Description:
The chain is mostly beta strands. It has one domain (8-112). It has one helix and six strands; from the N terminus they run E-E-E-E-E-E-H. A six-stranded antiparallel sheet has the order 1-2-3-4-5-6, with helices on one face. A hairpin with a 2-residue loop joins strand 5 (82-85) and strand 6. The longest helix is centred in the C-terminal third of the chain and has 12 residues, at 99-110. The relative contact order is 0.19. Mean pLDDT is 79; it is low at 60-64.
Amino acid sequence: MADDESPEVVYEKRKVVRAGVLVRYKFIYPTAVERYPPGACYALHYGVADPADPPDDTEWPIGPEQGTMLRYDNDHGDGSHHRHVGANLDSEYEFPGSVAAVYDRFFRETGIEPFGPSPEDYDI
């Protein structure tokens, strides 16, 4: 893919997993592959469906604009990988080497049954 082409969204999914709480995730083959090790951009998000009105039994999210309770991403274009938990960035987090490993850890931590394809289905 040439740098002047639009990125290819490989997969993007949103699912309400319980009242007021959703999971959304995306895998993208970006045009500048070298900026997104391992060659794909990813974001896995577990948070409140409506940040302005989170469920009573849900810990307050990172911020009202995102409603994040747990997020993994490399959606920064600088080669960095992040794990956001509660109101903090997990400074001890190290990328395990594959997006599939992040995907597995994300669903294990949230306790949500994985849905949709795994990054392994796309070789990322």
